[in-house]
Amino acid sequence: MKLDLGSLRAFIKGDTHADRVVPPTGFTAQLTLFAAAAMAFLAVFALALSLAAGRLADRWGDELARSATIRIVAPLDQRAAQTAAALAILETTQGVASARALTDAEQQALLAPWFGSELVLDALPVPRLIEVIEDADGIDAAGLRLRLSAEVPGAILDDHSRWRAPLVEAASRLRLLGWVSIVLIGAAVAAMITLAANAALAANAQVIAVLRLVGATDDYIAQAFIRRFTLRALGGAAVGTVLGMIAMIFMPSASAAAGFLTGLGFQGFGWLAPLFIPVLAGGVAFLATRMAARHTLRELT
Amino acid sequence: MIELENVAYSYGGGELLSDISLRLAPGSFHFLTGPSGAGKTTLLKLCYGALLPTAGHVRLFGADVRSLDRDDIAIVRRRVGVVHQDVQFLDHLSLVDNISLPLTVSGRQADTVTNDLNELMTWVGLTNRADALPPELSGGERQRAAVARAVIMSPDVILADEPTGNIDWEMSQRLLRLLIELNKMGKTVLIATHDLSLIRAAKAQVQARVLRITNRRIQLAGADL
Asked: How far is A284 from chain B (nearest CA, A)?
């Protein structure tokens, strides 16, 4: 059974005679449809979870990795000198795209939520902050620390990795779980279709015997079953996917406060992703029924 | 067409048939007889590839049956019409769809041979039952429908296993006339039956050879029939 474009078209169009040789089944057909729809509905959510977790991991991993902070903790009279020395080092450090010391006003704005806006920074030994933006290659944090400790004793480099790493890891793990769920759902669909196809093949043993007697090839007999189950899985999954996507549309949108979670849902082209679910379900059903039919038919005369 | 050469067949422990050599020539008419359980049905199954011989060679249209794959066997069956004792149909399809089933499964659309089909239905006297479902048919109607299904592909060989097994004498005469007519059109016919009066009736109309299975072997029966 070669699968080129022509035979695919013929498969979809179908042979009405071939379809009719297998007796219609009412109740089990609906069960297959229902199970395919339920699986597709779940798959939509697993997909949304994976995509959202992926966005989260990328954002945390990417944007935060591109910046680092240096604190200059030094007595007030040495602070300016050490800041200048640190900036000089950064200028000659590989991987630094730009570095600048935060102004008093900016530091005041950062501290305002905690100390109020009337704070006079000059009166306090507030460390000076230097914002370092890395280029695509990134900096060698350990090497920079060594150089800073030698020449600017009051400098402390924070490349954010300490608190970023577990978050990125959690998001990546969440994404992995999402994909594993999708694979499991696919496997469950395959198992369900195989069981249904085996039941149908067993129930139609007499039909198959008659077809063999009058000269039907295995492909012809298998096709009648394969087409039926593929279309059921495709149809059921399409309904389930549409329902799942409707549910996603009506999810409360993430407010700015919940931006941390970036909202469990699809964004932009992500809305196209669930459309592949019915196609995949159909493909899985096609392969599962084909294997079951081949297996059963080989054992008959 | 169909050749058996020193063929043996055993089920489980015991040997049912042994050292059978048989050649069905084109246009010949054979009866196969013998007591119940002698292996008539088994021999017919060997002739259309439903069973493989445990020893010896079976050649169908020149090809050894062991060298044929499943698709080849399917193609062979399009050239061999089989009528079973307990005919099975697809019970959810109408009689006319069942009779044209061999055309359907071989990819020939039944619509293109409507005339032939109508003629065939008339010939077996089932025109007014065309839309009936198989379970609604009488025993005789089922047997005639089986013959119609067996010949619709215009096969070279027709194998019939007790075709008159569960129908009355008059109906079996009609069925026999159908098979004799087919033979006169050049088809090779092999009928397994234990009904000796049927064989006698046939011998009056056609030159038939009678093969008898006794003691696991096949022999040409004499003129005593």
From this structure: 26
Helix axes B70-77, A218-249, angle to 10 degrees: 110
CB contact (8 A) between residue B71 and residue A218: yes
Task: List, for residues A184-195, the tens digit of each pLDDT value.
Answer: 999 999 999 999
- Kindly tell me if the per-residue pLDDT of A51 is higher than 80: yes
Residue A70 φ then ψ, to 5°: -115, 130
Continuous segment of H or E residues that includes residue A47: helix A27-63
Amino acid symbol at A218:
D
Q: Are strands A155-158 and B80-83 parallel, antiparallel or unpaired?
A: unpaired
pLDDT at A35 over 90: yes
Written as six digits, the tokens of B214 are: 């006794």
The separation between the first and the last C-alpha atoms of chain A, rounded to the nearest angstrom, is: 20
Give the pLDDT confidence score for residue A242 in this predicted structure: 94
- Is the predicted pLDDT of residue A297 greater than 60, yes or no? yes
- What radius of gyration, in Å, describes the C-alpha atoms of chain A? 31
Give chain B as a 3 state SS string: CEEEEEEEEEECCEEEEEEEEEEECCCCEEEEECCCCCCHHHHHHHHCCCCCCCEEEEEECCEEHHHCCHHHHHHHHCCEEEECCCCCCCCCCCHHHHHCHHHHHCCCCHHHHHHHHHHHHHHCCCHHHCCCCHHHCCHHHHHHHHHHHHHCCCCCEEEEECCCCCCCHHHHHHHHHHHHHHHHCCCEEEEECCCHHHHHHHHCCCCCEEEEEECCEEEECCCCC
Binding-site residues on chain B for chain A (CB distance < 8 A): 49-51, 70-71, 74-78, 82, 84, 88-93, 97, 101-102, 104-106, 109-110, 149, 153
Measured torsion, CA atoms of residues A242, A244, A246, A248, in degrees rounded to the nearest 10:
-140
Name, in order, each residue with C-beta under 8 angstroms of B134's C-beta and a sequence gap of 6 or more. B89, B90, B91, B93, B95, B98, B142, B145
| Chain A residues whose beta carbon lies within 8 Å of the beta carbon of residue B88 | 206, 209-210, 213
> Cβ separation of A209 and B90 shorter than 8 Å?
no
